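Figure S7 source data.
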Amino acid sequence: MENRQAIKAENLVKTFGKGDSMVEVINGASFQVNKGELVALIAPSGAGKTTLLMMIGCVLEPTSGSIWLGDEKVYENRWLTKETRKIRREKIGFIFQAHYLIPFLTILDNITLVPQTNGISKEESEKNAIALLRYFDIEDKAKSMPSSLSGGQNQRAAIARALANRPQIILADEPTAALDIKRSVDVVKMLKKIAVDQDVAVIMVTHDEAMLPLCDRILKIEDKKVVSHSVSENKETGIL
Amino acid sequence: MINLAQKDIQHTLGKFIVTAMGVGMLLGIVLIMIGVYRGMIIDAQVLLDDLKVDLWVVQKDTLGPFAEASRVHEDLKNSIGIIEGVKKAEGITFQNLQLPSKAGPVRVFAVGFDPYGAIDPINPKKIIAGRGLERDHYEMVVTDKTGFHVGDTLHLGRDDYKVVGVTHGTVSSGGDPLVYVSLKDAQELQFLYANTRIRADRARGIKTLNSHMVNAVVATVRSGYSVNEVAEKIRRFKYKSVYTAEEEKTILTKNLIKMASKQIGMFTVILVIVSTIIIALIIYTMTLEKIKEIAIMKLIGIPNGMIIKMIMQETLLMGFLAFISANIFAHLIYAKFPKRVVLEIPDAWILFFVVIIASLLASLVGVKKVISADPSEAIGG
Ligand SMILES: Nc1ncnc2c1ncn2[C@@H]1O[C@H](COP(=O)(O)OP(=O)(O)OP(=O)(O)O)[C@@H](O)[C@H]1O
Ligand SMILES: [Mg+2]
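Tokens for the predicted adenosine-5'-triphosphate complex:
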């Protein structure tokens, strides 16, 4: 049977600082996310959601443990490659609460920057970018600067950017926090559709309980560890 | 591939150009400083070139009137004149004068020579109005920069002097405008100017020196005779210090070049350092302004190389634009300086390379910032 694993973490530990001022944020987190799955990551503020996401995204170095992205083991007590940035631009799409588009690049350039860095020709990456913009209904903004778009348009452009390198994993840190309920539902539905259509694993940090029924599964940080809950289980017990 | 520098500059074009122009003005001053230096060296030689003499006979054990005080008796010209090989010999004086004018006194350098003599220091090609000196009293030829015209009357000492001619492009080694007066007038002016001083000296019992002194005797050599041999002969018979025109030129310019190159060199080095620091500060602020975007780019996987390239290209372009505006600025203002400013292309090239190296150094502060930017902090705040 085909291996559906997109993300796997084993016994992840993350501490900040040293000595007396040392803080242990994650201690012994193990979990797995499969391709095509939209998983919500929940926990109270300061529990380590962003920290966990940044470790999975090869941005923040864990203290110990192991991480697999797809079939590739990328971390075992140390990075197994010097080029974590190459992993990021080739395998991962990032979405944040704010759009974080580069203000001096047009929407089109923002979206094609990473694919072009990956060696895809200008023509092809622009063709793909236009298709994404059409999908998100902002095709007419291709040549505009981010400063001239509305918040919702910029957020859609940012999601388009996260998809442009055809990632295996999408890491979204509170992507709906700045949006109203209707737009939030739209974005989460969109992420679910992307997960299915493109066979991508999506981890989405959220504080919004209303988004949980749209997800496939819920990961919760409890006692510095990661626990998996089903959506129905949440409905019954209200784990949030 | 997307050129990040180009996109970033397009986004802040006006600010970028104005900043480059500001730095350019500073570099323009560097060009002017070098131009002043070049001008000084050219100015220093005008008087000597116009004189067209072969030998300078000056007070014993001195380097001559351009380096230190030198006095010889006027009659020396006669005994030099009869030495074998000497064609012409004349006494000549140099002194600073303040010419009275409505706008305040004009400082000039006066050359005194015998208008009836055999050597005329006025280059006839440089006379743009009137004529040279023809009488041995109360006539004056001035340089156009003094602001006087033919027919003007100048009251100097006890007498009125008439401007009979105007020259162009004649300056002393110090850059002061030249005027020409007769030897007799020059001697009298020196004497008269010291009137009160002489009275005081008399009271102290010091005898007045007679005024039949000149600062040097200049001579030309007959064709067929070696300048060096004639010089040697004068040295032996007359116990004076003798220099060839070439030696005198070296004395004049060496001294000047040594002083001026140090002076101007210091200014230039300081200005270049200041410009480098300013470019570095600008690049540093430009990088800081983008630090968030830089962290985001690093987070989504853009290699450092691409970001560093952006900083370097922006810095080099800033340096290049500054260099261009420096040249434009220098060429716009150099003619307005009172002394000669000579802008030479090789000097501009040297500045170009200095600016490029300075820009590369300046970009390092930005590059350091790029390398240390933490992508995991990109999304905070
Ligand atoms: N660089 C750091 N140095 C020290 N402590 C840090 C650092 N980054 C995060 N922390 C700490 O780690 C803990 C988890 O932070 P994190 O940002 O992951 O929380 P979070 O779950 O994303 O919270 P929120 O919901 O508010 O975004 C916090 O207590 C925080 O203070
Ligand atoms: Mg967070």
